[in-house]
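Hi V.,

You were right to ask for the full record rather than a summary. Here it is.
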Amino acid sequence: MMNALNPIHNHIPMENAPKEGGSGLEYQVLTKDDLLKILPFGKTKLDQLLQAGILPVIKIGRDYITNHHELDEWFKANRGKELFY
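Predicted structure:
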């Protein structure tokens, strides 16, 4: 079930949306390409945020991954703040 108050879930392509199952939401892995579709800025700014360690991601080699839950928590923790990188 999508949460109408959650800004991230309102912009997620359906193929990347969390799935409900018997044990609740599954934490689907999001890649850098998924983040480009979800977040309201382009590749250059996303790269800057990733390299600065601003976003809640795990870096594996040259790749970055995260999930919807981590992004939701990051948005909650940073609501109303101005972030510099």
